[in-house]
Amino acid sequence: MSGETKETCFDEFVAAREQFEKLMGELRSDSARILEHGEVESLIAREGYELLRRLMQGYLDQRAAAEERCEVVTGADGAERRHCRARSRSLATVFGEVTVRRLGYSGARLKSVFPLDAALNLPPNQYSQGVRRKVGLEVAKGSFEEAVKAIQEGTGAEVPKRQAEELSRAISVDFDEFYARPAVEDARRPVEEASAPEEEAGTPEVDSSDLLVMSTDGKGIVVRKQDLREATRKKAEATTHKLKARLSKGEKRNRKRMATVASVVRGGPACADRRADHGARRVNRAEAAQSTEQAGVGQPTSDPGGSDRGDVRRSRAS
Prior knowledge:
Blueprint: H1 2-12, H2 14-28, H3 37-66, E1 73-74, E2 80-81, E3 83-93, E4 96-107, E5 110-113, H4 115-120, H5 129-141, H6 144-154, H7 161-171, H8 175-180, H9 189-194, E6 211-222, H10 230-237, E7 256-267, H11 269-276, E8 288-297, E9 312-317
Antiparallel strand pairs: 1-2, 3-4, 4-5, 6-7, 7-8, 8-9
Helix pairs in contact: 1-3, 2-3, 5-6, 5-7
């Protein structure tokens, strides 16, 4: 029995083995010995995707061959389906298009059900989970045209622009519902709160559903020579000035230090919506639960007062 199973498994991957031998033969050929590495890379990528596609196809064929025929199948609607026949459907994967063969069960005026589809967790349309994930990642980076081009060049799949738009809407259908749900509390939180020092008992509670937004910016500003870093100060002392009262154009080199401004705002969805709206330039203080601003020159200090660096910190709460 084990020998028959092994032989059957090997039969499903005959096409994959043939593709592998073909690729190995091309790499060993005399014509491949004069190729540049970029040409070899393209060859392996092109033929490699076909090899992966055939491996995927072989696995699906193996699952189809192992599927057992049932006398009756009960669907999600509770109705029994006794009529069975073989069906097939296409599946676009990141390696290329494959065919899924499985048994379908139907009845009079009943929609067909496919147990193997459920076992494989196949999507309702032809695009696999890997393709859907790739579409989501690429669409988040730029336009739909760029996403379609990136998928075509980086995978073995082809997704037209219209289908990419439909997939992006389908994979984001749970976005609002996800953020509307209460945040899941960490199971370790009660233990941590019980072991917290008594002096921290007065710390204000923070809603776990609040958003924490951070923004930073930097700008080079002219400072006095004694405030420059040592290496920069030596370069500044070795240069001469055209004017005595001020620096002329082009003389600000080796005269600056980086000033950094950071802002941290914690608030609820209302605060996030206002910030996302291009027409809203300010956030109501009542919407921001707490905000902290920090500005300084050079390395930030650990001193809360910032007396040794001239840092400015300000915190406010509604």
